[in-house]
TrEMBL record, chain A:
GO terms for molecular function: electron transfer activity; metal ion binding. Keywords: Cell membrane, Electron transport, Heme, Iron, Membrane, Metal-binding, Signal, Transmembrane, Transmembrane helix, Transport. GO terms for cellular component: plasma membrane. The keyword Transmembrane helix applies. Belongs to the NapC/NirT/NrfH family. GO terms for biological process: anaerobic respiration. The keyword Iron applies. It holds the Pfam family Cytochrom_NNT. Its main location: membrane. It is found in: Cell membrane. Residues 1-26 form the signal peptide. This is Cytochrome c nitrite reductase small subunit. It comes from Heliobacterium mobile.
Amino acid sequence: MELSKKIKVGILSVVILLAAAGAATATMHAVTHESSFCASCHVMQNYMASWEHSSHREVAGCNDCHTDQRNYLAKTYSKATAGARHAFMNVIKPPEHLKMIESSKEVVQRNCLRCHDSLVEKTRLADQDAEADRKFCFDCHRSTPHGRERPTPP
Amino acid sequence: GKQPSSTLGPINTGLAPDEVDIQKFAVLFPHQYDSFMKNAEMSTIGTKYGGNLEKDSHLEKYPYLKTLFAGYAFSLEYNEDRGHVYTMRDLATVKRVTSLPNGKKQVGSCMTCKSAEVPGMIQKMGLDYYSTPVEEHLKNMNHGMSCSNCHDPQTMKLRVVQPAFIDAMKRRGEDVTKATQQQLRTYVCAQCHVEYYFNPTRQGEVTFPWDKGFTPDQMEQYYNEVAATENKFPQDWKHPLSGAPMLKAQHPEFETYQGSIHQINGVSCADCHMPYEKEGNQKISSHQWTSPLKQMQQSCSVCHREDMDTLRNYVISKQDLTFEMLNKAGSANEVAAKSIEKAIQAGATDADLTEARKLHRSAQWHWDIVAAENSMGFHNTPLTMNTLSKAIDLANQATMAAAKAGKFNDIPAATSYSDYINERLSTKGWPKDKGVKMPASDMSWK
Amino acid sequence: GKQPSSTLGPINTGLAPDEVDIQKFAVLFPHQYDSFMKNAEMSTIGTKYGGNLEKDSHLEKYPYLKTLFAGYAFSLEYNEDRGHVYTMRDLATVKRVTSLPNGKKQVGSCMTCKSAEVPGMIQKMGLDYYSTPVEEHLKNMNHGMSCSNCHDPQTMKLRVVQPAFIDAMKRRGEDVTKATQQQLRTYVCAQCHVEYYFNPTRQGEVTFPWDKGFTPDQMEQYYNEVAATENKFPQDWKHPLSGAPMLKAQHPEFETYQGSIHQINGVSCADCHMPYEKEGNQKISSHQWTSPLKQMQQSCSVCHREDMDTLRNYVISKQDLTFEMLNKAGSANEVAAKSIEKAIQAGATDADLTEARKLHRSAQWHWDIVAAENSMGFHNTPLTMNTLSKAIDLANQATMAAAKAGKFNDIPAATSYSDYINERLSTKGWPKDKGVKMPASDMSWK
Ligand SMILES: [Ca+2]
Ligand SMILES: [Ca+2]
């Protein structure tokens, strides 16, 4: 990553934290709302690219799946903590291959259900909340929406 | 967190806790019931080694079985499995039950995996359930497999009821009544699709040989070191040609699956054999258990993106390689049995033959644990093939030991049945465009 | 959108079209060059059966090799492979080259996969290149493997230059000079990581036995039906114990890979063995070819989501099952050789032994095609295991045929080397926390 971008991101991460902590929460949400915001990071570009080719492109953006949508507070908290962590990691040393952390999985799973609950309402797919070996939607839907292969970003 | 409101949620069916009558469930869950009744459909379209075909005879397909099972009930009649609606019918009509020699009667233990009434009967009758003849039981029983084999009738939650399974897992240190839902999606099947024997010290109680582990070698060790001594179960039968104390393996799907690539990735039996399918705008779990190769769009394509014909061809190519080894192991076991017979005729004593018989028992066990498994190696190809290579080697060793004991060197020639077997395979249901579809058949047992 | 600046557009290096000197490339592509030079690093950390360890002796690890390769150069010295920077050094110092009996000189054909200079030499010398001794060639050659083995020096596009590969594929009807980029990501490796023989009718020209197909059975058929007759190549050597005309298999990575699950999914050698990695701020293809198990984050997690330790353990469990069969096949072949020897001593004639020798040749071929392959079954487990089961069965059949020919029944006992072999394995580089790391070693050959 070029230096100018590094600085931008550094500033951004500080802004995210401050904004969330302070009064500018609304502004933070506005900035981070678009999927293109996520893709402003180098390591996010693969995910942007695969999402852009998925059937979800028109119906769900990054935040629809990856941020906690239960209420405004949860949303703010999840954006702020995840945002700050990503920005931090991005400056230190972005890993070559990303994997969702456990708490992110819960968030995404809830979001799948947010949209598809009626489809699965006759099944027991949401019954396994607390179980360690629970199956997530994306354990079967392995290519939704990011495809299977995740080459390192160029 | 809070459950999204629209999922199935807690159910109260209002049924009795010990309800077994499938019709009572049918009214409440018509989709699953309809799906269940499709188990009557028979076809092999899309599958080379599996599918569902009425009484497709193993004895006819694999001619060497007559020698391998000589002197044992499995040489009377032994067929490819078919749908869950036929469990009672097939039990009631198979010659292994109806035509035992010398008026012998088949024991009740056989019912254990055929009807939803069994757990209740065991509760009532105790061990007498096992020793009562099948034909007695058949007269009194009105239900085959039903929803309650896997579901709690009141909540419809998955649960296991098979005493043999619960006990065997307990001996391994696992309390399966506390299993997670994900585990249960495999455990409900493991109630029946497993290797078993009838414990003579407990009136023939159905028992699973897992104390030392699930691999063919570990189960064999259990038979040799625990079942034979503690439970006085030295053998299933004595082979009339070789005089060896033999073991019979039965449908070890669950055991074979352990350690496979799908199992370590958390894939359950239900994921492949009960894929979600759409009924209107909702998903339900298919309750038509059959070869997933007949329905790969549902069973495989959510996880696998490759073209399903490519994947099917790959699976079949693995099965072909397994099949070739299986038949080699079968024919090598035939030679072993005949060689020991020859040694006996040449005057070898029991003492001379100890080694050869030990090898024969072990060789046929390793062949059978694959032959009796129903996926032609798919469920765990590396383990299956390793096992077959042992079967082949052990059978050859048995033959060599027999030659030594009988002091002969003109070892009986192995018969290659492959042309016959392949020919028969290609006329019954394969290739897939020729696959056989048959109408539903009689399910009654009275 | 705009191309990210780091991808390679059309390149004009300004180098000569036949440039072979790696230093000339180094200046232009320092990252790939640095990566290439890491091939000197030696370690087995993370891998049980592979890795890269200086002169790890196969003869010492598998004691039965002394019998199997008796009378042949491979019984002099035979080591685990190591990095591409050592090709010339290892060729120049191995006893198969330096210490042939009776002052025999190893032929130039051996250089073929060791240096970038070879294609140019063949162009200049014609078939004389192959018959000129290695030691002659070594004096004149200044380059080992280099970029030009796989890249066009002017454009850096992938291309193949090995005449044996181009010809063999042409005989199969494929023009590999027209191969796609994706194919080339495998074909560049297939120039060398393949089975070969030296054609006696063409001064020992390196030739690949693929006219009938890539499976062990198809290559064997080619050797028996084409090489033996048309090309007067009946054998690699005559086994001194059994008198059978033997075949030696060499590194059939490419052949084994055909039809595997990864191959049918379009995965190339480079995908696993040359994963993308970051060099500074650039993404490059790793040019450090070694066991991918040492770098699973790069090699596997691009496609596989499971935890890499779980995946590694699974891979090793498959390799363990393969390894067990491999050693059984090795020891069965030892018994076969000794049994035929015993029959000869007992007075069996060549005519009596025809069958036994045919079986011995075929048995050892099936063992060797796996033993010589470098992934311990990983590249194609089903095919590998099927092949080993044939090796075991054929070796046992050879033994029985020998017993018949020699009219004896006390067949030599098989030695189980497994304790020794496992013990040695666990002291050299495994388990992974004990893995051995060694400093780079000498690469020179003059
Ligand atoms: Ca049994
Ligand atoms: Ca060769």
